[in-house]
Design a protein that fits this description.
Structural class: alpha/beta
Strand content: 15-25%
Largest sheet: 3 strands, parallel
CATH class of the largest domain: Alpha Beta
Distance between the termini: 29 Å
Radius of gyration: 17 Å
Number of helices: 9
Strand order of the largest sheet: 6-1-7
CATH superfamily of the largest domain: LigB-like
Order of helices and strands: HEEEHHEEHEHEHHHHEEEE
Number of domains: 2
Length: 245
């Protein structure tokens, strides 16, 4: 609903888009494209996908009419070829709401080409981190890597009331994650399943957590993490977003 209802988070994303230098293209890793193997959109005109139900009609009417980048898709394929990881996907996907709900604030004119890459559901957290490291050279090619998910995402324990109080475990894990990325403790976040009850509740299924590992894997020595937004909404959803540069 943030795509329809601007707030302090979307204002921060808008400000970030104005502050960033313009990339040649954007590679998006979204929690909402979970597949066998790794796929990448390679079409010239990706469709806007409304991969949800039960929301107001204006949300389904939203479009993000960006162009694709077959060249970037091919580049991703070449970088991941040693892992046998990517098959180019032409028609069956596009830009899902994990991507366009953020992109419409970062680049509202939809004038930067976008390629979306799927998450391999068969990988471990370590597997995702290792795969992401193969993509690091894209950063020096002026490609923006955008990872979209939530480090705390528990829909079963959500509280729909306005100004809902965060669950203590949600705050605990969110704060732990933030402290770890600010001190470059990547391995402990890769091994999140050993972190106890707060982690188990924060990550009941891992697909919303995995995207955060992609920018961390591409972090270079001397680079720092800057927090763009932070907060727990609806008791059990983290709105933490960060940039590495």
């Amino acid at each position: 609903m943030y795509a329809l209802e601007p707030n302090r988070y979307t204002a921060a994303w808008s400000a970030l888009g104005k502050a960033l230098s313009r990339p040649e293209a954007i590679l998006v890793i979204s929690a909402h494209w979970l597949t066998r193997g790794v796929w990448a959109t390679a079409m010239q005109k990706p469709q806007t996908i409304h991969d949800f139900g039960g929301f107001p009609e204006p949300l389904f009417a939203l479009q993000y009419p960006t162009s694709g980048s077959p060249a970037l898709a091919q580049r991703v394929q070449s970088l991941l070829a040693p892992m046998g990881a990517v098959v180019l996907e032409e028609n069956e996907w596009g830009i899902d709401h994990g991507a366009w709900s953020v992109l419409r604030y970062l680049y509202p004119a939809a004038d930067v080409p976008v390629v979306q890459m799927s998450l391999n559901g068969g990988f471990s957290a370590q597997g995702h981190y290792d795969l992401a490291r193969h993509l690091t050279s894209l950063r020096s090619e002026n490609i923006l890597i955008l990872a979209s998910g939530n480090v705390v995402h528990n829909l079963r324990l959500i509280n729909w009331q306005a100004d809902a109080t965060p669950h203590p475990w949600a705050l605990e894990f969110n704060d732990f994650f933030l402290q770890a990325i600010q001190t470059n403790q990547h391995q402990v976040l890769i091994d999140w399943e050993s972190l106890g009850e707060a982690a188990r509740l924060a990550i009941p299924t891992p697909e919303h957590y995995w995207p955060a590992l992609y920018p961390l894997a591409m972090q270079q020595p001397g680079e720092t993490v800057s927090v763009i937004t932070n907060g727990i909404e609806m008791s059990s959803i983290s709105m933490l977003s960060f940039i590495i540069q």
